[in-house]
Amino acid sequence: MTKKIGAGRRVLVTGGAGFLGSHLCEALLDDGCDVLCADNFYTGRKENIVRLFADPHFELLRHDVTFPLYVEVDEIYNLACPAAPTHYQYDPVQTTKTSVHGAINMLGLAKRCRAKILQASTSEVYGDPTVHPQREDYWGNVNPIGVRSCYDEGKRCAETLFFDYHRQHRLRIKVARIFNTYGPRMQENDGRVVSNFIVQCLRNEPVTVFGRGQQTRSFCYVSDIVHGLMKLMASDDTITGPVNLGNPGEVTIAELARMIVELTGSESPLEYRALPRDDPGRRKPDIGLAQAQLGWWPTVDLTAGLRDTIAYFRNSLDLTAVRTRAR
Ligand code: NAD
Ligand code: UDP
Ligand code: UDP
């Protein structure tokens, strides 16, 4: 048997039962790592990781990262944090605590274990950007007191803590600024645009476009992001980031709605609703740094990725319907 590159590495994934985290746990196991998933199930689900329970190299710990954690690991991927606006705005104080106290605890753990630590930061640190596309040297345009601030400012403070632990304690850090990601295991009711539009189309309900749908986003398929995170973790210690990970293909929300209507073969009409407060107008990553430093770029185009995601939701909505009928 060929020895896998990751053999023997003990890796902690916080938020490992979530959408991105569960795909990352799988990829790390495939790479030969011992994976410890720590999650408080705030937005994560056991269903996301249930197929990993049989693997002796996988362990699940119910744990809230706002509390200290004493384990022995070599690498930490810090993903714990609700990511969908409806979820992170539900209990905004807890969202800030998760980002800030969570970062302090995981950095303290990394310091004690001399582990390498990666932070799942976000394009939200750029706020409603005045520079387009967004490069890592842009400092952003964030409202510090708005409804999105618990998430944006929490993530910005976490980045600060990462760089201060790096400067002050010589910690090996990696900061990834992840742009909008989609794929199987998004939740049907998380309010994010891709999941909302697909579920609405599959149910032939109106597709809720906020504002005039002229705001843009750049959507990256989940396997590409997971690959990018692992490449960043494996990179030379001199590479700290922040580094953008995302797909530069930019679409308006109205275009996305029309694509999903077509790909699902739905009869759903578009229905225009009020634009949420502080909703960023344009978003597109400049991924030049990731290309140059990591040799990474996304490979799954939007149509292919949406097809897979639609297939996932068709299946999971069918199952939900079966379960509801059985009750
Ligand atoms: P998600 O909500 O599916 O996953 C977050 C996970 O963190 C969940 O399993 C949740 O239960 C867990 N969690 C939340 N608070 C916790 C706490 N206090 N202690 C322990 N676990 C906790 O979201 P996701 O889309 O998988 O996002 C994962 C990470 O990636 C987040 O940090 C998010 O900010 C970042 N990110 C995601 C995107 C995206 O488009 N999905 C974009 C940018 C950044
Ligand atoms: N911490 C942790 N696990 C560890 C080591 C530390 O959760 O293995 C937490 C601990 O709660 C501490 C925080 O990380 O408050 C920051 O640790 P650090 O050593 O940087 O600071 P200090 O302990 O001096 O506050
Ligand atoms: N959006 C929309 N209809 C929906 C959900 C979201 O038009 O049902 C819009 C939202 O206003 C935003 C974009 O789609 O402009 C992306 O929203 P999402 O919540 O997925 O991510 P984020 O705003 O954090 O990028």
Short structural summary:
The protein is α/β, with parallel strands linked by helices. It is built from 9 helices and 13 strands.
Shape field:
globular
Topology as H/E string? EHEEEHHEHEEHEEEHEEHEHH
Strand residue content: 15-25%
End-to-end separation in angstroms reads: 47 Å
Query: Which ions and ligands are bound to the chains?
Result: nicotinamide-adenine-dinucleotide, uridine-5'-diphosphate
Which blocks of ≥5 consecutive residues have pLDDT under 50?
Answer: none
List the helices and strands and how they pair.
Layout: E1 10-14, H1 19-30, E2 34-39, E3 58-62, E4 75-78, H2 85-90, H3 92-113, E5 116-122, H4 149-169, E6 173-178, E7 181-182, H5 193-202, E8 207-210, E9 216-218, E10 220-221, H6 222-234, E11 243-245, E12 250-252, H7 253-264, E13 270-273, H8 288-294, H9 302-326
Parallel strand pairs: 1-2, 1-4, 2-3, 4-5, 5-6, 6-11, 7-10, 8-13
Antiparallel strand pairs: 9-12
The structure holds nicotinamide-adenine-dinucleotide (NAD) and uridine-5'-diphosphate (2 copies).
Describe what this molecule looks like in 3D:
The strands form 4 sheets. The protein has a 7-stranded parallel sheet with strand order 3-2-1-4-5-6-11, with helices on both faces. Strands 7-10 form a two-stranded parallel sheet. It is built from 9 helices and 13 strands. Helix 3 runs parallel beside helix 4, helix 5 (193-202) crosses helix 9 and helix 7 (253-264) crosses helix 9 (302-326). The protein has helices at residues 19-30, 85-90, 92-113, 149-169, 193-202, 222-234, 253-264, 288-294, 302-326; strands at 10-14, 34-39, 58-62, 75-78, 116-122, 173-178, 181-182, 207-210, 216-218, 220-221, 243-245, 250-252, 270-273. With 327 residues, it is α/β, with parallel strands linked by helices. It starts with 9 loop residues before the first strand and ends with a helix. The chain binds nicotinamide-adenine-dinucleotide (NAD) and uridine-5'-diphosphate (UDP) (2 copies). One uridine-5'-diphosphate binds next to helix 3. One uridine-5'-diphosphate is lined by residues 85, 180, 192-193, 196, 208-210, 215, 217, 253, 276, 279.
